């Protein structure tokens, strides 16, 4: 079947009162972004409280649908067949052609749902329902009408042209990116952080990211892996500014001056501080991490409290109550899993102690950090100044 | 300064080879199977290359077959000859320190095609134990495959002795050698040495990637493993990779020019390098270091620094080396070869491989040693406690 348009259904946006146009505009913008690389000419527009994607000429149907499925804010994607209005006779024929091709078995229950935005049309919506229903019943003796729970809901919209559609492909839901500010994602290269970024972005938040690189302890490949992950997430979230911080000197300094079992927790506190610096500098309204309670020593309730204590911005942890299995499921869905499990060491694991503290005491940690007073400010400054910023696009 | 000491992973192409490959791609691009002149011209390159290789190995040019590289040659040698000689027996022998192209092919034959495989142990210097070979031979044995030079530590295998043992036991047992690291460093004469099949690759000898060859003695019964247009006497179907073949031929000719002199220079550099390495505390060089070892490979264990860390630290200074073998480096597992030679535990994940070429200079070695003297103590300060 050749479809000429897609009707985009959006759920939550519909109820946004006077802000509604902001959400719709963002949705249109994100759809355009998602279809940029797809073969075909697309015309994305708003009309009577709906968003349409009209496809001019030849286009790649699968790629288009895949692209649309990655636009947050879309609840359903309806492939539409557009026909010219050349009288009811012709419309009946067009509807039969449509039904024959879409439902060759011809034995389902159905219902016709007509709507007219062009009110001059000679028949009312109810009349269209009845008459087209009759035409279908005559042509498909095994089909039955069910107005309450039909298997096929044939929508007939009378505009300049007449739109026919009956299928709804589920979209990702959420809200269009750009409607809820930006946040800074701490991106590590593991399984969790890309998923965390995806989930927050799904609520309409644009992303920036910070990655901590520790050459020579972590390889160039580890960094490339993180860029690849950011790329995958940006297919949903839009372009991502990735800040690559050289963390080696800070890490080694902590290693030298602080108790070894506190290394990871102190390191994470400095990571949060640096990420927050870039967040504030770039107008981000919060930090995002992939932490989940109890997953590792640095993610116990006590450890989370200790890391949290260094930030003034809110820290969003969308995976906080998720099990690994559930996180992996999403990672597989958004296609980051394969990339995440490539075996390159990240900077959190290189010097990890055999028995890191699992219940850090904030006062003790702060006392240990006092050993760093001499040089840490300068090291932080250098790390921030030498940070490389990469703009990642899908 | 850029110092490339990873020549066992791959080498820089000779510029002359690059030019020739380009010319064959863009001007003499015919298909050797075509009837017209373009095809004949292309065929000339294939013939010339075969001729060159045949001369170097002192074999007949019809015993040379081109493949996509070492891995495919190894697959063809093992699978092709095992299948063709199944009726004579089902036992195969190889060493435990072969390249994965051999080990995994053997494993396939074992698990999927019902062959029995013996993996021979090695001594402390990484050389196959000949006693074990003697014990492993049995009436069912049809094929023995032992590499020429080990890729991870440069141990040169006692091929001549092994061939003698095998052929004395039963002359009809086939002997294959993966000479990917040996070809271009040693004069290899398969016929004289009794090697029935020999594998080599282009990109280890300053030739292109994606091209290799296999010598197959004309008496060897072998079946193809890829099927198609029956090129190369139906042993290896598929349009010949003419640019690659031409490049491989020229590279082989060039690397064997003044080979003895080049190898002597490499040995000189190697002993100079070894002397310098000796000054690093708690370090070891795996295997033999005298003239019986490969001239270009040095495998060094430096206790307390993980291979990958040292690799990246050297990379930072423009020095490119490899941790273990580049072919298996994506799996951060401990090297089977080092375990096989019984290397001390502290070196198992703390070993890097330096591999030189004819382009390596003394200045480069000096620079590498100075860099090591600087960064080893620094890196040792920070280890996982």
From TrEMBL, chain A:
Its EC number is 2.8.1.4. InterPro entries: Rossmann-like_a/b/a_fold (IPR014729), ThiI_AANH (IPR020536), ThiI_fer (IPR054173), ThiI_N (IPR049961), THUMP_dom (IPR004114), THUMP_ThiI (IPR049962), tRNA_STrfase (IPR003720), tRNA_sulfurtransferase_ThiI (IPR050102). Pathway: Cofactor biosynthesis; thiamine diphosphate biosynthesis. Keywords: ATP-binding, Cytoplasm, Nucleotide-binding, RNA-binding, Thiamine biosynthesis, Transferase, tRNA-binding. ATP binds at residues 186-187, 211-212, 268, 290, 299. It is an enzyme of class 2 (transferase). One of its GO terms (cellular component) is cytosol. It catalyses: [ThiS sulfur-carrier protein]-C-terminal Gly-Gly-AMP + S-sulfanyl-L-cysteinyl-[cysteine desulfurase] + AH2 = [ThiS sulfur-carrier protein]-C-terminal-Gly-aminoethanethioate + L-cysteinyl-[cysteine desulfurase] + A + AMP + 2 H(+); [ThiI sulfur-carrier protein]-S-sulfanyl-L-cysteine + a uridine in tRNA + 2 reduced [2Fe-2S]-[ferredoxin] + ATP + H(+) = [ThiI sulfur-carrier protein]-L-cysteine + a 4-thiouridine in tRNA + 2 oxidized [2Fe-2S]-[ferredoxin] + AMP + diphosphate. Residues 62-170 form the THUMP domain. One of its GO terms (molecular function) is tRNA-uracil-4 sulfurtransferase activity. It is found in: Cytoplasm. It holds the Pfam family ThiI. GO terms for biological process: thiamine biosynthetic process; thiamine diphosphate biosynthetic process; thiazole biosynthetic process; tRNA 4-thiouridine biosynthesis. Catalyzes the ATP-dependent transfer of a sulfur to tRNA to produce 4-thiouridine in position 8 of tRNAs, which functions as a near-UV photosensor. Also catalyzes the transfer of sulfur to the sulfur carrier protein ThiS, forming ThiS-thiocarboxylate. This is a step in the synthesis of thiazole, in the thiamine biosynthesis pathway. The sulfur is donated as persulfide by IscS. Belongs to the ThiI family. This is Probable tRNA sulfurtransferase. It comes from Faecalicatena orotica.
From TrEMBL, chain B:
Residues 3-367 form the Aminotransferase class V domain. Pfam families: Aminotran_5. InterPro entries: Aminotrans_V_dom, Aminotrans_V_PyrdxlP_BS, Cysteine_dSase, PyrdxlP-dep_Trfase, PyrdxlP-dep_Trfase_major, PyrdxlP-dep_Trfase_small. Its cofactor is pyridoxal 5'-phosphate. SUPFAM superfamilies: PLP-dependent transferases. Keywords: Iron, Iron-sulfur, Metal-binding, Pyridoxal phosphate. One of its GO terms (molecular function) is cysteine desulfurase activity. The keyword Iron-sulfur applies. Belongs to the class-V pyridoxal-phosphate-dependent aminotransferase family. NifS/IscS subfamily. This is Cysteine desulfurase. It comes from Faecalicatena orotica. The lineage of its organism: Bacteria, Bacillati, Bacillota, Clostridia, Lachnospirales.
